[in-house]
Specification:
Blueprint (H helix, E strand, L loop, with lengths): L4 H12 L8 E6 L3 E6 L4 E5 L2 H7 L17 H5 L7 H21 L4 E5 L13 E5 L3 H8 L4 E6 L10 E2 L3 H4 L5 E5 L1 H4 L3 H7 L5 E5 L7 H5 L5 E7 L2 H9 L4 H4 L3 E8 L4
Parallel strand pairs: 5-6, 5-8, 6-7, 8-9, 9-10
Antiparallel strand pairs: 1-2, 2-3, 4-11, 10-11
Helix pairs in contact: 1-4
């Protein structure tokens, strides 16, 4: 069986993080917009909460099967949930894995090149380009359309298909034709990231974007990604408050900065 990206990330973090077993989840919040985890190290991670998919996965009475068990648990154990095909578990697991990834990134900053701003500021788009945006990130749509020949937007959420957006089942047809592919970090949580990257065979640039894209960058680079457009949390307590109060990306801007990461350039 082929090893998945999240599995590789967990192994790499285990290999590069001293005293990993001593890092505990201090707090976990499953908010309406995002799920957030704060570690005993002070680091934190986010993952978008799939409202529709989470609702379908939950029963009327029992909302999650892990409530009351996460705080105080070793973070490496909670991060293992990122491998689950149960969306409730994978969201929490990825938020924890993203938090642990920040520790690894800080320990090895020379592995990367960092830029301020989101990934779109660091991707050259031309009128000759066909672009695929996997995930309906509305602020990106108009700026991209103004610069390229064709933009395809693919989205899993049924209600958004009424806006003329293609369902994500069209990815197998669209991605192999795209010159630039932008993939929301939520694809890591829902288990589609490996297939999406493998399908982007023509792309000169592949960006993984959004607050959920906090996983250890090199595992994505190894699978063809060229740019990671994630976030740096600058006020962990404020971030946890915003998530607990149902905030989404606009509210979270008060507690985070957009950061773009590329592989370290060698000469």
């Amino acid at each position: 069986m082929v090893e998945r990206i999240v599995e590789k990330a967990i192994k790499k973090i285990e290999a590069v993080t001293p005293n990993l077993d001593e890092i505990i989840v201090n707090q976990a919040v499953l908010g309406l917009g995002y799920t957030a985890v704060k570690l005993s190290s002070g680091h934190a991670g986010l993952c978008y909460t799939f409202e529709t998919e989470v609702a379908q996965a939950m029963s009327h009475c029992q909302k999650t099967n892990f409530a009351g068990t996460i705080a105080g648990t070793p973070a490496c154990k909670v991060a293992e949930k990122a491998k689950s095909w149960d969306v409730n578990e994978s969201i929490l697991g990825l938020a924890t894995l993203n938090a642990l990834s920040q520790i690894a990134i800080e320990k090895n900053p020379d592995n990367y090149t960092f830029f301020n701003g989101d990934a779109l500021d660091h991707i050259k788009l031309t009128k000759e380009d066909t672009v695929a945006l996997v995930g309906c990130i509305k602020p990106f749509i108009k700026p991209i359309q103004e610069k390229v020949k064709k933009l395809y937007v693919l989205e899993r959420t049924v209600s958004r298909r009424e806006e003329g957006i293609l369902p994500d089942t069209a990815c197998d047809q669209i991605l192999p034709t795209a010159d630039v592919v932008l993939i929301t970090g939520t694809a890591i949580a829902n288990g589609t990231i490996d297939h999406l990257l493998n399908s982007s065979t023509k792309a000169k640039e592949i960006a993984i974007i959004g607050p959920s894209a906090g996983i250890l960058p090199e595992v994505l680079f190894e699978h063809g990604a060229t740019i990671i457009g994630g976030v740096k949390i600058i006020d962990t307590d404020k971030m946890m408050q915003i998530v607990s109060e149902g905030g989404g990306t606009p509210a979270l801007k008060a507690a985070m900065q957009f950061v773009t990461i590329k592989p370290k350039q060698t000469h």
